[in-house]
Amino acid sequence: MPKVTVHRKAHFNAAHRLYREEWSDDKNFEVFGKCNNHNFHGHNYELIVSLTGEIDQETGYVYDLGKLKRIIKIEIEEALDHKNLNLEVEEFKTLNPTAENIAVVIFNKLRKHIPLHLEIEITLYETPRNFVTYSGN
Amino acid sequence: MPKVTVHRKAHFNAAHRLYREEWSDDKNFEVFGKCNNHNFHGHNYELIVSLTGEIDQETGYVYDLGKLKRIIKIEIEEALDHKNLNLEVEEFKTLNPTAENIAVVIFNKLRKHIPLHLEIEITLYETPRNFVTYSGN
Amino acid sequence: MPKVTVHRKAHFNAAHRLYREEWSDDKNFEVFGKCNNHNFHGHNYELIVSLTGEIDQETGYVYDLGKLKRIIKIEIEEALDHKNLNLEVEEFKTLNPTAENIAVVIFNKLRKHIPLHLEIEITLYETPRNFVTYSGN
Amino acid sequence: MPKVTVHRKAHFNAAHRLYREEWSDDKNFEVFGKCNNHNFHGHNYELIVSLTGEIDQETGYVYDLGKLKRIIKIEIEEALDHKNLNLEVEEFKTLNPTAENIAVVIFNKLRKHIPLHLEIEITLYETPRNFVTYSGN
Amino acid sequence: MPKVTVHRKAHFNAAHRLYREEWSDDKNFEVFGKCNNHNFHGHNYELIVSLTGEIDQETGYVYDLGKLKRIIKIEIEEALDHKNLNLEVEEFKTLNPTAENIAVVIFNKLRKHIPLHLEIEITLYETPRNFVTYSGN
Amino acid sequence: MPKVTVHRKAHFNAAHRLYREEWSDDKNFEVFGKCNNHNFHGHNYELIVSLTGEIDQETGYVYDLGKLKRIIKIEIEEALDHKNLNLEVEEFKTLNPTAENIAVVIFNKLRKHIPLHLEIEITLYETPRNFVTYSGN
């Protein structure tokens, strides 16, 4: 059967701040610039989840996008939307919430719920001009 | 010569319905949900056709996008635009018109008209949030 | 208090067909072209609902957009999404479902649920290139 | 001379929280929902500044958009970008940073720098689906 | 009958240069900056034509958007697409091709072809961040 | 460490013309159509630069997008923005400025400034409907 990638878009809004606790304020500002602001700033994150696999001959689906929408809602949107990533999301208490790291966290959260014969790719827009892609390697 | 991918966007509007004739109404609704509506619903499909190959040294083109535009117009838009996919398009009389299957059908239609040294990839948006990609494997 | 317009986007997918029953097939085709197809075609309709009024001094809101989102969901999306407008939506059994008429129907449906001190404007995209605006006059 | 409106887009990222100090936590949550989160959340704000006036016969401009870009950069982006609106922006220490109020604040900040024969309109996207418009009345 | 605005998008690519012949190079550069480049630069202009009028009771249309599409194609796209506005378009031989002036020229070209009971508004994007609106006053 | 791709968008406006000096006018028009116009035409080019590599454990970055933004500004935007590609950009004095060739030139310019352990991919939109991708092979 032909192998197709199906994509589903979602989004969430969150606050974050980039810094390393063990660095001085000067070093943090030098590396992370405005993103180091102590009082946080925020983004409308746009997320694309992509699943690659063979088309099921009976349904014509690679994966039911309605089901994927519900998994994203429960596992990602409810965990991250309108949250302060540094203060309220377990994974980022010891991990800098850069777009790169958020994409890896989202990948790992979804990997547990998506059948293993399907490859996953995560695209995460932090702003309309800055975005990242991660596919689990 | 460098290998480049050239992309061309197009679109068409169509009605469709997802179902399997041999299934009960209940099973069809369970699997396809609102997309199973007997009276059809519809979409503005956005299509991206991508061709990969070496740049021609004389023209600087991988493939003339004006020519690709005309092939898409004749082979895809005239065949699918403002059509009911289930009732009026031969390929979908026995094949469920999911985005996955439509992408495969479009790939096969274009494959006959594009020189074989060029790889083809099809991206098809069913809605701004649901889309699929197929490259012929 | 300053007067501000607040806007909320939503969308729905539907099938429709443009025609007048009392006209001949030829006249219908002449006037409505491909949109007259007997077997229906469809669109992803994008909807913007705009409410204009004074900012409430206590909340800083003109109108709670979460509440507007729920009204649009119940009154518009559940009534029109994945429907065949001609066959399944009462208002279009005797009214041609042009973008203009759909915008007027949506306006009238929402007018009953939005406080009268707020002006309403409806913007409805039938395709990314064709859209209409209606504000109740 | 013909009257034309010229528009310039800009953007900034910020954190905020909606609440009234004198209300209970319950009432704040009831009115502002997830936007009331104590630890802030954030947005990529997209801003459109629109100026209406007569075309200058010599230049063909209503207003130099390069100049408008610099005014927006200094007065709006440097004041709001990567900031926590509640904690770091004077105007929102006593004013709820709803999209409505942010639009009014931006209008007032720009009004001082734009010649009085030009009308100003502010469009502010808080998310791609929620936005507001204000023109000074 | 309800008054509705119908909108149609189109686009064209063109080269232009902003300058006044009677000004020195220094003054031209001071006023028009990079847009004054002697060798021209260019844009993908996005155009929205908006017509306001009553819905026709028989068709449900304010104006047939297919017809508007053809008028825009002949009067605007064929006149401006892939052209050098300064050198090849009559109207701009003595008029600076700013976005403001191009919008006025497009308005005047269309006014002759659109019935007088319909109001016209022109929106012209010079870039995704700079655009203008003109409605004939 | 996980391998992630980070993307940064930028843009520039330029004029160009497609032709081969040694060909007749007829042959040039036959191959390049309207793009062969002697007086040039132009585009708003949208550029996406994508870098693939491992996440740095200390910063959580693959590459500082602020730094990438500055490199793109100096190496690409200042070299190409508001320029006539054929007349003013060294690389295109003997190379046809097709989207394919512009992407290759941008890739080569950036390759010198980006550490070698990072892969580069260039996506270049000539118009919203025509675009190309190049990753250095």
Structure characterization notes:
- 6 copies of one chain form a homohexamer.
- The first copy, chain A, is an alpha+beta fold and 137 residues long.
- Chain A has a single domain, classed as Tetrahydropterin Synthase, Chain A (2-Layer Sandwich), CATH 3.30.479.
- Chain A is 30% helix and 32% strand.
- Chain A is built from 4 helices and 5 strands, in the order E-H-E-H-E-H-H-E-E.
- In chain A, strands 3-1-2-4-5 form a 5-stranded mixed sheet.
- The longest helix of chain A has 16 residues.
- At the A-D interface, strand 1, strand 2 and strand 3 of A face strand 1, strand 2 and strand 3 of D.
- Strand 1 of chain C pairs antiparallel with strand 5 of chain D.
Sequence of strands across the biggest β-sheet of chain A: 3-1-2-4-5
CATH architecture heading of chain A: 2-Layer Sandwich
CATH topology of chain A: Tetrahydropterin Synthase, Chain A
Which geometry of chain A do the CA atoms define?
elongated
Radius of gyration of chain A: 17 Å
Strand content of chain A: 25-35%
Structural class of chain A: alpha+beta
**How many helices of chain A?**
4
Biggest interface = A-D, 22 and 22 residues
What's the topology here?
Six copies of one chain form a homohexamer.
Chain A: E1 3-16, H1 25-32, E2 41-54, H2 65-80, E3 83-84, H3 85-88, H4 99-111, E4 119-127, E5 130-134
Parallel strand pairs in A: 1-3
Antiparallel strand pairs in A: 1-2, 2-4, 4-5
